[in-house]
Specification:
single chain, Arc Repressor Mutant, subunit A, 7-stranded parallel β-sheet, DNA-binding, EC 5.6.2.4, metal ion binding, DNA binding
Amino acid sequence: MNSNEIEIHKELKKYFGFSQFKGLQEQVIQSILNKKNTFVIMPTGGGKSLCYQLPALIQEGTAIVVSPLIALMKNQVDAIRSLSSENGIAHVLNSSLTKSEITQVKADITAGITKLLYVAPESLTKEEYVQFLQSVPISFVAIDEAHCISEWGHDFRPEYRNLRHIIKQLGDVPVIGLTATATPKVQEDILKNLDMTDANTFKASFNRPNLYYEVRTKTKNVESDIIRFIRQHKGKSGIIYCLSRKKVESIAEVLQVNGISAVPYHAGLDAKTRAKHQDMFLMEDVDVVVATIAFGMGIDKPDVRYVIHHDIPKSLESYYQETGRAGRDGGEGHCLAYYSYKDVEKLEKFMSGKPVAEQEIGFALLQEVVAYAETSMSRRKFLLHYFGEEFDSETGEGADMDDNVRNPKTKVEAQDAVVKLLEIVRDTKHIYKSKEIVFTLIGRINAVIKAHKTDTQSFFGSGSDHDEKYWMALLRQVLVEGFLSKDIETYGIIKITPKGLDFIKNPRSFMMSEDHEYSENEDDTIVTASKSSATADEALMEMLRELRKKVAKKLGVPPFVVFQDPSLEDMALKYPITIPELCNIHGVGEGKAKKYGADFIALINRYVEDHDIIRPDDLVVKSTGVNSANKLYIIQNIDRKLPLTDIASAKGLSMDALIKEMEQIVYSGTKLNINYWLDDLLDEDQQEEIHDYFMESDSDKINDALKEFDGEYDIDELRLMRIKFISEVAN
């Protein structure tokens, strides 16, 4: 160590009490002390702030730190003040200060006491502040959260765009940009915008080997799934992210009703409540915080054990940031995201009102999230590739820490298909995004393809032996392998790389794993416990099926009329042994429990005793009763023979949603007489034909009925007839 190095190790010990630097910190600090422009890319929790705090404390003059978050500035100032006897060692300069406080800040800076001055970008645009800062010695300017400069970042702030001009007015001071999230595109943007393409760049690895990544299908009973997950992690701290405030409130409420200590956190709560909820979480008075992304910026809780995304985020950067709040202490961190393509479509709708350029960026970022969720390759490799980092999924640290690696999908040889794909990218001359490339392969025409006359080329449709899903999956994997590149500047145009051209010349084995199928039980409108089958008691399930068959035979009805499969699965999971407990089973209402319940609870009772089963009486997912008012309204107004269209519009429901509600009502055992409505839709013979079909069928699935009648009836007619059938035959 030269004397300079010994010096900064001594200072590190003196101010921060550490005897060693972490990762790249030491090199970064040396670069700053040498007055060089410096750019630091370091994941959250990597020790970024120390990189500018230490050099600021040991240099002449004041360092200016630009930060977008007032709460974060306050935390940092408090932390630095605790290191020194001088309160004035660090100050905040922003709109929240009074006149006299501003005077005090200026005096401390002039006296050379203040080493770090935290400012919001807006404050820097004030003429009086700029003039004052021109008159005092400035050691350097640090720009924290530098990705806010780039509209490709996940948190773009227009006011960051002016920083370069303001810094220039302060004279020739070195600039340090710091960010915790940066795709290669965002990094380039930051350097260009700060006019520091000559900067020393330091990039730490984005791999967090202790985090386990998992994506599950978002079914209708996602709430029960979340409750089950939290119960498996009893007493541990977790964060649940939702996209809307409304969702935050309702999930927090469902968790509370089910005995989980949780609080909501979003920008709609007043500052006092927000601060209180954040403190409760930090002090472990509550286990779970349900939040919009407004939460977590200033949170430095090292032992968050899981982060759940109830809704998929808008970009992979946000996802990386938010999951990165788990396991900061190096201990376990489970990152669970629920994915359904419907959510993605919702996000796309939100974007449709924005300027075109912003929409393009938004769509490009969203497609990356979809690709991440649907991929069957190592999620860690996929994420790190997105951040421009290579990862060896065999030997890399944390290689087995994701659901795809632990439950690998079968791989198939795709050598010839890869060649075909690469040739198409080459021969269409790099003008297309993924969608058009796949369309060209399968021979589907759209406006873009027509405009370029690609449909007249000999290779058009040359990959029609595989479907769109197959080619999309292959394209993603070939991208990650580096045979193709995606040009983000042009919103995702695909180009071939030298590595790809070489593969065409010298093809070799390429094993691809097929994408996940995320089906959402489109058909079985009532099935919401479909996920639970994996944990149900198989032996009991068999016995319940047998009993159902017997009861159905005796009554001369199809078995599904007695109880649907999801209800049996739920019984095999929760072991209800009284009628009230049976009423809490999924899809079983009081009417149904009284009518058919006795035999079933008798069977379960015997089974529980014979096998010494400890019943999970806490597994009843209680609902917050939001829908009960709707249900009552629907039942009363069907009794009054009000047109269904009127009932739907009075409650702000679509027809589909109203039918769903009605299905839940009749399947849980309440009668609904909708003859007045059906008689206008279908004549007597048609109704009889559908009734007989359900009577003789083994299944009440609408898809099966649609196939059987082959277009004779539409989906709503069949669903309404199924409601009538269940209502009359079962209830």
